[in-house]
Amino acid sequence: MDLDLRKLRYFVAVAEHRHFGRAAQRLFIAQPVLSRQIKAFERELACALLVRSTRSVELTAAGERLYEEARQILASVDAAVRRVHDVERGVARLVIAFAPGLPVSEAVRAFNARRPEVGTDLVPTRWWEQDRQLREGLAQVGYLRRQFDETGLRIVPIGHEPRVACMPAAHPLASRSELARADLDGELILDTPTRRTSTLEEKFELIASGHGIALVPRSVAHTYSRPDLVHLPVTDAPIVETCLATVDRPDDLVREFLDVATATLRRGGRDPQ
């Protein structure tokens, strides 16, 4: 089926407001029209997206997944349209993808200081498909963590960071100052084939609920810090390598950004916080 982007935007508005009336106001359409469009969208997809009540709207499991996917889809579409308009106006623009917890802002500021006429956009990557934006032409550069499929990509090593074990604050191991991998024997580790989460928010919510623990880069644990979780160093866990990635044979603008970003990020890339 062809995905109707207008209906997808309507659905996202309802998902964000959890209320048809407020979503309709934001979209500048009548509430009955919005309701009919969402029902038509559900029929087209052949699945229920919302659970409706007289006071609120909740997402079904399918709706939650579509909401996550839709935000990525609409962001990609908006970026593509913006790039088309930039070409028409003769405006140069660079899109940089970044993995969660990896701050690329310092490199962007340094590049913008050198090339203020170039527009820069930032797009987040999903942890299990970091190279997707590069391969689909949605970004020209990525600040990523290995491992991912590097086929056909140019990789510039930046630094490394340790992994930490993230677990509930009430976990028996939570009072320790550090761990070894042997201490985790018998624990349910997320991010294995047994349970792959679609977002980091979902992963940390599962951990806080007692559904397992996870080994994550330390910068990710710091970025998603919360009082009901602790993260402990794992002394013998493999380090995480960080890198800049771009398509092979980048153009002059991308090469210039790579030069600036490499120098900037390597100063702090040995162990990002």
TrEMBL record:
<dbReference type="InterPro" id="IPR000847">
    <property type="entry name" value="LysR_HTH_N"/>
</dbReference>
<feature type="domain" description="HTH lysR-type">
    <location>
        <begin position="3"/>
        <end position="60"/>
    </location>
</feature>
<protein>
    <submittedName>
        <fullName>LysR family transcriptional regulator</fullName>
    </submittedName>
</protein>
<dbReference type="GO" id="GO:0032993">
    <property type="term" value="C:protein-DNA complex"/>
</dbReference>
<dbReference type="InterPro" id="IPR036388">
    <property type="entry name" value="WH-like_DNA-bd_sf"/>
</dbReference>
<dbReference type="GO" id="GO:0003677">
    <property type="term" value="F:DNA binding"/>
</dbReference>
<dbReference type="GO" id="GO:0003700">
    <property type="term" value="F:DNA-binding transcription factor activity"/>
</dbReference>
<dbReference type="Pfam" id="PF03466">
    <property type="entry name" value="LysR_substrate"/>
</dbReference>
<comment type="similarity">
    <text>Belongs to the LysR transcriptional regulatory family.</text>
</comment>
<keyword id="KW-0238">DNA-binding</keyword>
<keyword id="KW-0805">Transcription regulation</keyword>
<dbReference type="Pfam" id="PF00126">
    <property type="entry name" value="HTH_1"/>
</dbReference>
<dbReference type="InterPro" id="IPR036390">
    <property type="entry name" value="WH_DNA-bd_sf"/>
</dbReference>
<keyword id="KW-0804">Transcription</keyword>
<keyword id="KW-0010">Activator</keyword>
<dbReference type="InterPro" id="IPR005119">
    <property type="entry name" value="LysR_subst-bd"/>
</dbReference>
